[in-house]
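quick one before i forget lol
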Amino acid sequence: MKKIRQIIFLFGIIGITSFSCEKEKDEIKQTEGYIVGFDPCTINHHYRIGYVIISTDLKDTLVTYNLSDNKYRMPSSVINNLSDTLYKIPESYFQNFINSAYFPNIARYEFKIKVSYYKAKENEKIINICTTDINQVDFAYQFDHNQVIIISATKY
């Protein structure tokens, strides 16, 4: 009887780990696109900058907060890890954030990027307080639903 319990327990552990690994593989996605804008709340309140990435096929709009430096800095870096800076985005691209969360039209296709990512879980989402900002409610809603965690990023 003890041996049967051990065998059942062993198969249970194998089943749980195989299903959890399979689920994790399904969640990881890749896309090629462009960094085209930012979460304006992060600029106004000096939070870690959230970037907007639009896929080249225009089907996905993603927001991530883990491509910027941990501390607010200008010009802003787009990084995958501290030793790998992909882009330095000029401060002037962030100056018109009251009217638009997007970079100037001339810069729309300047920051090409290929990313592997997964959809941020509730406990991983960045939620910034921007109560004094006008028109931030729409941005916050959109960014909350499309927020991702970047696993890897490269120029392309």
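fyi Strands lie at 29-38, 51-55, 61-64, 76-81, 84-89, 112-119, 148-154.
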